[in-house]
Amino acid sequence: MHRENVTNPAQVLPDSSSNLSKKDQVADMFNNIAGNYDFLNHFLSMGIDKGWRKKAIAEINKIQPKLILDVATGTADLAIAAVATHAHSITGIDIANQMLDIGRKKIKERKLDGIITLQYGDSEALPFSDGHFDAITCAYGVRNFEHLEAGLKEMNRVMRTGGKLAILEFSHPKKFPIKEVYKFYFRYILPTLGKLVSKHSRAYTYLPESVNAFPEGNVFCTMLERCGFKDAHARPLTFGITTLYTATK
């Protein structure tokens, strides 16, 4: 059984002393750690994150999408993985321009700029027409939304009827001893290593705080359906360290 979190995700901020909105704080935080983000992402997950992305792409590939939107694309790892679907066009959006700059370099190096386009975009006001995309993905971005349901409703709006959604997000292992090891790693090891490498004091303490506040499992599935999606399903991966959420429209 999945626990319900009582903390409002919108109240968990990268810098509680700042007068900026959560959205602006998140953009600033990711711009500050952009240069080390990919290294830390793969290092701190011990490379397991690549397999998680493949599973998310395998889900949307079931409908053979031609137009894909990757929300909170960051440095475009999931957008690049989505090339395996043979989609005609993949669009990635993010509010952190420096993350997008790194993503564009990776895309150009792989000669994928004819397929993948990255642009600045706000998840709560997507600059696309209704029903435009066949599939929408998001990896580890929804818990950073300032208004979670507003972002989910926008994702639903720009997806066509019959389209597929795949969201990856961190979650909490439920079984001993993985639960205890994960909790210790997430609370002490990850923030320390993140701070040493990124030189950003809050980015990797905000991470476990935002994960704790996220409405995971069945609670998030109910939220997805409240926002217009159907057949929402939560699939725990790697002992429940992360969860793959899928839904249709």
Question: Strand order within the widest sheet?
Answer: 3-2-1-4-5-7-6
* Sheet/helix structural class: alpha/beta
Question: How would you sum up the global shape?
Answer: globular
* Helix and strand sequence: HHEHEHEEHEHHHEE
Q: Could you tell me the number of beta strands?
A: 7
How would you portray this structure in words?
By secondary structure, the chain is an alpha/beta fold. The protein has a single domain, classed as Rossmann fold. It has eight helices and seven strands. The chain has helices at 22-44, 48-60, 77-81, 97-109, 148-157, 178-198, 203-213, 218-226, and strands spanning 67-71, 89-94, 116-120, 133-139, 159-170, 230-237, 242-248. A seven-stranded mixed β-sheet has the order 3-2-1-4-5-7-6, sandwiched between helices. A hairpin with a 4-residue loop joins strand 6 (230-237) and strand 7. Helix 1 crosses helix 4 (97-109) and helix 6 (178-198) runs antiparallel to helix 7. The longest helix has 23 residues, at 22-44. It is globular and about 45 Å long. The relative contact order is 0.17.
